[in-house]
From TrEMBL:
Protein name: Histidine triad (HIT) family protein
Organism: Marivirga sericea
GO biological process annotation, one example: nucleotide metabolic process
Coiled-coil annotated residue ranges, if any: none
Domain annotation HIT: ranges: 4-107
Active site: 93
Chain location of the short sequence motif Histidine triad motif per the record: 91-95
InterPro entries: Histidine_triad_HIT, HIT-like, HIT-like_sf
Any GO molecular function: catalytic activity
Length: 131
């Protein structure tokens, strides 16, 4: 069965997409830790990041770097934190989380539940700053 992220890639379900190329896509986490929390995903569906082939693995990180630069310009933060968890969705993704404090990347804390309009606004800003 296709993962929830493949459904976003295929536009079968909505996602607030901020960047995309032939092999990778980035969209907002639907329940972010903080505003501007983005997931970067290889289009090829693999469960575990360390099972990616080297080319996809390195490309994913290079794409994430470009997305992080766009988030930096769009959200008030000191820097962008990076995490890989993957315990919920079995399709590789890198979390990019704007940081103002250590607690901003604490996955045990409660997550946010922004409105569609709030998500649209931050997605538009990141998309504009992606190049
Ligand atoms: P992980 O697999 O790294 O533990 O967490 C998966 C992440 O995907 C969570 O932060 C969760 O909020 C996010 N997520 C789960 N379902 C969806 C969805 O349908 N759309 C989006 N944009 N994010 C999702």
């Amino acid at each position: 069965m296709a993962s929830i992220f493949t459904k976003i890639i295929n536009r079968e379900i909505p996602g607030h997409i901020v960047a995309e190329d032939d092999n990778y896509i980035a969209f907002l986490d639907i329940n972010p830790l903080v505003e501007g929390h983005v997931l970067v995903v290889p289009k090829e569906e693999t469960d575990y990041i360390f099972n990616l082939d080297d080319k996809v693995f390195s490309g994913l990180h290079l794409f994430s770097k470009k997305v992080a630069k766009a988030i930096e310009k769009s959200v008030d933060c000191i820097r962008i934190g990076v995490a890989v968890i993957g315990l919920e969705v079995p399709h590789v993704h890198i979390h990019l989380v704007p940081l103002n404090s250590m607690n901003d990347i604490n996955f045990s804390k409660g997550k946010l539940n922004p409105s569609k309009e709030e998500l649209e606004e931050v997605a538009a800003a990141i998309k504009k700053n992606f190049n």
